[in-house]
Please model this.
Amino acid sequence: MTSARIRILVAAALCGSLTACTAGAVGAARDAGPAGDAKPAGDPAKVTVVSPAAGRTVTVTATGGTLTAVKVVDAEGGVLAGRTGAGGASWVSDRKAVPGTSYRVEVTARGAGGKETTTRSAFSTAEAALVNKVTLAPGKNSTVGVGQPLSIVFDRPVTRKAEVEKQLRVTTSNGTVGSWGWLKDWSGKDRVDWRPKEYWKAGTKVTLDATLDGTDSGGGWFVRDYRTGFTVGGAAQVVRVDLDGKKLTLERDGRTVRTIPVSGGTPGGDKRSWRGTAVLMAKEGTINMNSETVGLGDAYDKMVDYSMRLTWSGMYAHAAPWNAAHFGRANRSSGCIGMSDADAAWFYGQVRAGDPFEIRGAETKGTVAEGNGYGVWNVSWERWKAKSAVGG
Model:
């Protein structure tokens, strides 16, 4: 009695110009007897392999039988897991094939007569012409303030934003509600930030799983996954800057810790400060500040202590002893928030990256833009959700 014929197909749709599908039979050739003779029982199953293109899932189907085992492994031993469907007649990988990768496929199928056959094959995907990489903030395992968004800047353009965003999974220790939003970084690169509806709760643990390996951004392929995480600090700190009152107040868990006299940007021109919420990007210590780097000619070139960056465009909070006569009295800086050496030393020791600075004042040059540092809190929640490519 002749065993049931089983036809197994491993396939994936073509994607762009990376590679083309090629088909071929693998395994032992069928051994026909003399002319007119019936084929012997236990005849090997015919297996057809179609090499999938990068960026597509691997599909395995069985005709005239069911799949009992499918294993797809890359050259480094990584398993491409998948799920069986259609009553055991098909299998689809959970992840996509990655550019420039070789895979080995082993399939076992059972025919209608109960006989199992195992077939082995291999395929490779073409190298990616362009590779996209990311820069993640905040740093892995860092502790940040309640205003810090999760931010991803892409080396190359992202035109397939929805496809990329679907691969980004944020989990929090307390079910924080938040959304991704796409924007342009100050550098001009594409960027996507995840922010909560409101400031983080102190103590929240945040994890990002970016399963981007094998995803086409439209401007380049991702060839690895990314995973990072951070913790929101144990106290909720907010810095309130009143430029009209020339003062800065540090609040911790809703209570005033200290108020410091300051001098903000000079009214009436390009030296005005920004308003809105600016998130403390980094504590940079003693740095050289040169006005020419921010488009203010040769107004200053000096070493500045206790420097705390608030925007990419050059607004800082820092010590400004040369401006001592104006602290608490007048705004006479070149756009930064200056204070005495003693106040700056104390304040520098209290704040952390991610603390929000809520700045208000009548004489400012505008609101901090979303990509100028972390200006995401200057967008309403509804507008922010609308910036998601797949819905907030």
Summary: The longest helix spans residues 341-350.
